[in-house]
Amino acid sequence: MKVFFVKYNDPIYVKMEKLDIMIRLAQQNNIAQVLSELKEYATEVDVDFVRKSVRAIGRCAIKVEASSERCVATLLELIQTKVNYVVQEAVVVIKNLDTLDEPEARASMIWIIGEYAERIDNADELLESFVEGFHDENTQVQLQLLTAVVKLFLKRPTDTQQLVQRVLSLATQDSDNPDLRDRGYIYWRLLSADPAAAKQVVLAEKPLISEETDLLEPSLLDQLVCHIGSLASVYHKPPSSFVDGARQPLRAGT
């Protein structure tokens, strides 16, 4: 397999041919190595080669079904690069894979499109394809779709006005779900009253994700280790903080 890895000084036509060969040779026992190479190729400067490398990850997911989750994870990592053409190609590949059957997966896909809408040229087309079956979607997907369309409108208001009006109408007038209606009305009033405030609310900076164990003092962790299996490990507090040490002794006959 390593013989067909792309070298930096390979002509572009050789690089393209090597990609096809790598996909043909991809198997369960070497898929991790192949994905690692393809992910690295996605950082190259040649746009056509990068796009084909991203599409190759999707082809690997189809060929080696057991690795589909790993392939999708690799595509999601590429989306985090925030390079326009990489994000766009990765989103299209994920959408075309058969990994969007579950509501959570579809909602995650819609979130990605809305979150990076300014970097995805056809974000409106992608979201519109979900809007077509709005009433057939799970509530989780509907809520995420509503938010994603509003995000898209705030980022690209000139060409998405009809789309946002359509989704707001579906959420507020054609839905019986109170959560969906309430969110729709909130967005509608925000957009009507103060678009600048709506942008601050909907497009607010996301808080950084941190590991909860890092928030505990090392000395406290040492104490909790000694009390694994007790309420101390549930409360994340030493026993002395919630056990009354001055309890009255039991009397005979009680």
From TrEMBL:
Positions of the Clathrin/coatomer adaptor adaptin-like N-terminal domain: 94-193
Name of the protein in its database record: Clathrin/coatomer adaptor adaptin-like N-terminal domain-containing protein
Pfam families (UniProt xref): Adaptin_N (PF01602)
Species name: Cylicostephanus goldi (Nematode worm)
InterPro entries: AP_beta (IPR026739), ARM-like (IPR011989), ARM-type_fold (IPR016024), Clathrin/coatomer_adapt-like_N (IPR002553)
Principal subcellular localization: membrane
Keywords: Membrane, Protein transport, Transport
Any GO BP annotation: intracellular protein transport
Signal peptide feature range: none
Subcellular location(s) per record: Endomembrane system
Any GO CC annotation of this UniProt entry: membrane coat
Family as reported in the entry's similarity comment: Belongs to the adaptor complexes large subunit family.
